Amino acid sequence: MAERLDLTGQRFGRLVVLGYDHTTKGHAYWRCQCDCGGEKVTCTTSLRRGDARSCGCLHREATKRSNTRHGMCRSRIYRIWKHMRSRCEDPNDISYRYYGARGVRLCDRWQDFNNFLADMGPSYADGLSIERLDNDKDYAPDNCKWIPVADQAKNRSFNRMLTVDGETRCLAEQARLYGTSINTARYRAAHGYSDQEIIFGRQSK
Predict the structure, then answer these.
(1) Could you tell me the sign of the dihedral formed by the alpha carbons of 111, 113, 115, 119, in that order?
(2) Could you tell me the pTM of the whole model?
(3) Which of 102, 144, 175, 202 has the fewest C-beta atoms under 10 angstroms from its C-beta?
(4) How many CA atoms lie within 13 A of 121 on its CB side?
(5) pLDDT in tens, 112-159
(6) Is there a contact between 127 and 149 (Cβ–Cβ < 8 Å)?
(7) CA–CA distance, 172 with 167 (Å, rounded to integer)
(8) What residues form DSSP beta bridges with 24?
(9) Which whole-number Å values give the CA distances from 124 to 134, 146, 174, in the listed order?
(10) Alpha-carbon distance 174 to 182, whole Å?
């Protein structure tokens, strides 16, 4: 087994690593002290690539600044941004397992709503929804576009996440893994089959 990199004492943004906490699925997690006094437990990858830079206070401050300046907290585009950030960063969000838990992040620039508004506002219209061009990449200016809500619902039926034998992957990946025709899996998904049934079919009783 490779020797674990020791991050104790190192600084990442507002976080200073206090020490090793635990390992999950091969990823080492570290207990960190934030400059504001809060604490956060996060993994090596998040620290080293800059995804974890505070205990959460940076996001709260950015939200407060955005709400103060833009005056759009009741607008639909603001709600889209808020929900996008929540599913990437809040483990309590019902959609977090499909986004944040899979490594999908909200880019640093879009932590501030005003930057998101500047990048995506000019092409926005009611009835549109934000879509990532590459579902394995982050929410960022070069990976997002607006599409009609109906089109996104159609795309999601093809790219929905399935939990099979305790592992969550997109429909296409699960179908390839278990040797199921993707078209068959899509048909089953559109007709109300459960996750297991989409891959294995309905068993006769």
Answers:
(1) positive
(2) 0.48
(3) 202
(4) 12
(5) 898 999 999 999 998 888 888 887 789 999 999 998 876 665 555 556
(6) yes
(7) 14
(8) 27
(9) 20, 7, 34
(10) 9
